[in-house]
Structure formats: C-alpha cells, structure tokens
TrEMBL record:
SUPFAM superfamilies, sorted: Anticodon-binding domain of a subclass of class I aminoacyl-tRNA synthetases, Nucleotidylyl transferase
Pfam families: tRNA-synt_1e (PF01406)
Catalytically driven reaction(s): tRNA(Cys) + L-cysteine + ATP = L-cysteinyl-tRNA(Cys) + AMP + diphosphate; S-sulfanyl-L-cysteine + tRNA(Cys) + ATP = (S)-sulfanyl-L-cysteinyl-tRNA(Cys) + AMP + diphosphate; 2 L-cysteine = S-sulfanyl-L-cysteine + L-alanine; S-disulfanyl-L-cysteine + tRNA(Cys) + ATP = (S)-disulfanyl-L-cysteinyl-tRNA(Cys) + AMP + diphosphate
Gene giving rise to this polypeptide: Dwil\GK22127
GO cellular component: cytoplasm
GO biological process terms on file: cysteinyl-tRNA aminoacylation
Gene3D superfamilies, sorted: Cysteine-tRNA ligase, C-terminal anti-codon recognition domain (1.20.120.1910), HUPs (3.40.50.620)
Positions of the tRNA synthetases class I catalytic domain: 67-363
UniProt keyword Coiled coil present: no
Cofactors demanded by this protein: Zn(2+)
Designated name of the protein: Cysteine--tRNA ligase
C-alpha cells in the first residue's frame, strides 16, 4: 500500500521509548499530575499511530491486542427529538476516523452503537405530546437514521435498543449488587457506590471530593456522587419492568451503554467514542461500572472525544435545551453533505467547531479546488492542454513526499486538516506545471502522464477514504447526468452543444486581426450563463472542458 513507509528517525525513537516501558506496563502521567491512576498501555501490536489521551494529556501509541478484530463502541442518540448539527458533527467526525482506520489503515474495525429509547426526556416529551413513548422513540430513530444516511455516515455493524436489553442490564446490575459495588434503596432504586471506585474521576482528571459526602436530603443516595443504575417507577404511565431485587423500574442512563457494550465486546474495549460533553459524567460512570464488574483498572483503552459544535460567536454548544439548534434537514437546504464533511475535516476532531456560513463557504471552496484539479488533470491527459516539459525525477520525489507526509498526518492523531494541506500543496504544484502557458519549444516534453495520473489517483482515493462522494469528474454519461439532474438540467448533451458553439465563436473572434472583442464578449456571456447554472467552463489551448461546480441550493456562487 502506498501509505505504508519506513518510520522517520524521530518517530522511530519515540516508538522505541514507548516500547522500553514494556508490554502491559503503565505510562507515567505528566509531572504536574497528581492523579493516582495512570493510563495502562495495552499489550498488543504496534501500529505507529498516535492518539491523544485525556488522562495523560498527551499522545500515546495505538496498540491492538487483537489486530484481526478491533472493537469500537459509540454512544448512540437519545431519540426524543430531531438530530441537530451538534449531533451530526460528532457522528461525521467519528465516521471519518472509522473510515481512516478501516479503509486507509486496513484495520478490521467492528463497530457498535446503542439507541436510547427509554429515558426521562423521552417519557417527559411523550407525556407532553400525548403519544406513546415507544412510538415516538421509533419515529425519531427513523428520522435519525435517515439524517445519518443523508450525511453519508456509515451505520454501525451492530446496533441495539435499550428497551430490548432489559434482561442484560439487570444482570449487569445484579453483578454490581452482589459485589457490593451497588446498593438497593427503600423504593427499589439501585445506585452505584462511587466510594468503592478507587479511580473515579480519572477521565476528567479530577478528585471527586463528594464521593463520601452524604446524599442530598430527600434522596435515597448514600453519597452525593452516587448515580442511579435503576430508577424505581414513580408514575402509572411510565415504562417499567419488574426487577429481581423488588418493585418495578427502568434503567438509568449510564448503565445502558456499559451493559450493551459489555454484551457486544466483553471485559475490554479498544475504542469508545462520543462528544466531549459526555466525558463526565457519562463516560466516567461507564468506566467505573465496567471496571467494577470486570474487576479491572481499565475497561476502555482509547477514549475518542469529539469537540462540540457551536454557532460562531456563541460560546455555548448547540443544544436542544438552549434552543440554538440547526437541524440536519435545514443544513441540507443550503449546503451539501460533502461540504459539511469537509468542514469537519478542516478542523481537528478534538477541537470545538464554530459553525458559520463562512466556514461552510470555505469548505465549499476547498472541495471545488479538488474538483478543478481533477478536471485540469483530465484535460491534460486528454491532450486538451499542450504537453509540457516536466522533470520526471522531481515529480517522482514530490509524489513520494506527498504520500509520506499525508500518511504521517493521519498517523498523528488523525490530523485531517494537515493531510488536506499536504494534498492541496501537491495539487497546486501539478496545476502550475500543466497550466503554465510559458514553455520551452526547443525541449521535447517529458510526458510523465503515468506519474500525474498516479498522483490524481492517490488524491482521489484518500478523499474517498474520508467519505467524500463526488470529487472526480468522469466520462461516464450516467455520472454526469446524475449531477446535472440535481441542478435541474436534462442532459450533458446540452452543455456539450453550447460549448461547441461557443468554441466556434471564440475561434472566429481570435482569428480576426485585431481580435473581435464583441464576439469574445458573447463567449464570456455564455460562460457566465453556464456558471450561474453550476457549470464551470475551463478554456484550454486546444479546446474547452467543463466541470459541475459546487453551487449552493440557494443559488450562491460556487467560489
């Protein structure tokens, strides 16, 4: 595979330092840390990929205990309302990383997700709406799946509803009760005893002082930080199930993911993903529950937390409770799924993402650069542009440099923004060469078509690995027809006829001496008309070609 290469000396030395710790040993926390717990390096195969670790606040090596099957669990939606861009950014970013691992690094990833269809918010919303809680949950789940499909987010390999896992969840809770890690209250609720969790607070890197403080007055909790595993039934109309410890009730929020992920993957999980806002308390509580049940100090080896999306200028995250949301369907009225994915690629997955029209226009323009490059390259290899003298050795070295630098970018905590920059540098360099109107007529051109096509293939392939769908213009009439149909045009023959007519007019105008400026103005008018319809005309010395531009759905310029 092109992307595999010899490690740089610096990176090799870094890997050696990690290896010197010995398999299964823990890595020391930063000097300023006072945490008792530190991350435990897994015993497994090195990948030369580095991932940010929130406990250590530094990057650590990705090691795979079973490289033939790598487990990944993502917290799924609570289906009580429509998904918004805050949700979408998390799932698109997670999808990008999963695609990189699967399609670029060829890692056999097995992914799972829960669907929270039993929850306080669902019950409250159903009661307010006067509808059945399960019917409402199924309707919003179907909408969520449709939204993810429209954003080209690959579905998980396995997915399960909380309501279908009550027995599994109760078994998990019974284990904790038997091990005295949880306790049953007078109303038959069940709470996790945080005072028994030695490393509680490790993901947040915070000492939980309230773990031994008495619970608030009026509650049945022993300690302030204890959290509910099972909630006793309070109202006749809420969903509930009988429990072996007595009474009826339903699961708490945190136990759902622990039980479902444990059912899928057992006592150890390679990856667990979710938004940064879930790190505490949700992920902290998941980790505490599973460490208690499976009698281990580390349940998840690699936590993947995505930065939150917020509207630019608004410091608060996008949230239904704050009523500052933008739905996925509203986004797609103005921008494409590829444009939103590109916006995610341009930002580090761990950082906050300030959403704005300017961000989306930048994403649109970046996508157009890739389309324009493929169109120029296609025109050059179709001899619509004059062949130039190219330095074969320099081009070969540049291609190798691009492949290596792109590979290093993705190995460095999935730095897609840096990877895109590497690709755009390669495209700019090639475009300058093949579009340069100056040439030495005395030199025989070094065609290097194979190297140019190889560069184009590599760029197109890795962009496909990111999940972008429509970057390359092809000769397929079906492919172009689909794009033109989306713009409201009937067929590509219409565009070809207009370009042919325009080419004749342009040839006549330039053949006259002096040039006929009026005819050239007509050519410009024809080009502008096509541009307004989303067709970008590209003139070359031996003819013209065209590319479907990224026009917005409210007739904004494609950039």
């Amino acid at each position: 595979m092109l992307s595999f290469r010899i490690c740089k000396v610096q990176r090799f030395q870094s890997c050696q330092r990690w290896q010197s710790q010995g398999p299964g040993q823990t890595l020391p926390p930063p000097a300023e840390s006072t945490q008792k717990y530190t991350w435990q390096k897994p015993l497994g195969q090195h990948t030369n990929i580095r991932i940010f670790n929130h406990v250590l606040r530094q990057k650590v090596p990705l090691l795979l205990p079973n490289p033939n099957m790598v487990s990944w669990y993502t917290c799924g939606p609570t289906v009580y309302d429509s998904a918004h861009l805050g949700h979408a950014s998390t799932y698109v970013k997670v999808d990008i990383i999963q695609r990189i691992l699967r399609d670029y690094f060829r890692i056999n990833l097995v992914t799972a997700m829960n669907i929270t269809d039993v929850d306080d918010k669902i019950i409250r919303r159903a009661r307010e709406s006067g509808c059945n809680w399960l019917d409402m949950a199924r309707a919003y789940e179907a909408e969520f799946r449709e939204d993810m499909l429209s954003l080209n987010v690959q579905p998980p390999d396995i997915r399960s509803h909380v309501s279908a896992n009550i027995d599994n969840i109760q078994r998990f809770i019974n284990e904790l009760i038997s091990n005295e890690q949880a306790y049953v209250t007078k109303d038959y609720s069940v709470y996790f005893d945080v005072s028994k969790a030695v490393h509680y607070g490790k993901l947040q890197r915070a000492d939980i002082d309230s773990s031994t403080e008495p619970g608030e007055q009026g509650t049945h909790k022993r300690h302030r930080s204890d959290f509910a595993l099972w909630k006793a039934k309070k109202f006749p109309d809420e969903p509930s199930w009988p429990a072996s410890w007595g009474g009826e009730g339903r699961p708490g929020w945190h136990i759902e993911c622990s039980a479902i992920a444990g059912m899928f993957f057992g006592r150890r999980l390679d990856f667990h993903a979710g938004g940064l806002d879930l790190r505490f308390p949700h992920h902290e509580n998941e980790e505490a529950q599973c460490c208690a049940r499976y009698e281990t100090d580390q349940w998840v080896n690699y936590w993947m937390h995505t930065g939150q999306l917020h509207v630019a200028g608004d410091k608060d995250k996008m949230s239904k409770s704050l009523k500052n949301t933008i739905s996925v369907s509203e986004l797609l009225k103005h921008y494409t799924a590829d444009e939103f994915r590109m916006a995610c690629l341009l930002s580090n997955y761990r950082n906050a993402m300030p959403y704005s029209d300017q961000l989306m226009i930048t994403a649109r323009q970046t996508l157009q650069k890739f389309r324009n490059f493929q169109a120029d390259l296609s025109a050059y290899t179709s001899f619509l542009k004059p062949l130039k003298y190219l330095d074969e050795g320099a081009l070969r070295a540049q291609l190798a440099h691009t492949v290596n630098e792109f590979d290093e970018s993705l190995r460095d905590d999935f730095d897609t923004a840096r990877g895109l920059s590497v690709l755009m540098d390669q495209m700019s360099s090639i475009s300058r060469c093949i579009n340069d109107q100056e040439g030495n007529a005395e030199q025989e051109p070094a065609y290097c078509l194979d190297l140019l096509i190889a560069a184009g293939n590599f760029i197109n392939k890795v962009m496909g690995d990111f999940g972008l769908t429509e970057l390359k213009e092809t000769e397929s009439s079906k492919s172009r027809q689909q794009q033109l149909s989306a713009l409201g045009l009937d067929s590509s023959n219409l565009v070809s006829d207009i370009l042919s007519l325009r080419g004749n007019i342009r040839q006549q105008a330039t053949a006259q001496s002096p040039k006929n400026l009026q005819l050239l103005a007509v050519c410009d008018d024809l080009r502008n008309v096509l541009q307004q319809q989303g067709i970008q005309v590209r003139d070359h010395k031996q003819g013209s070609s065209w590319v479907v531009a990224t026009a917005s759905k409210d007739n904004q310029s494609s950039g």
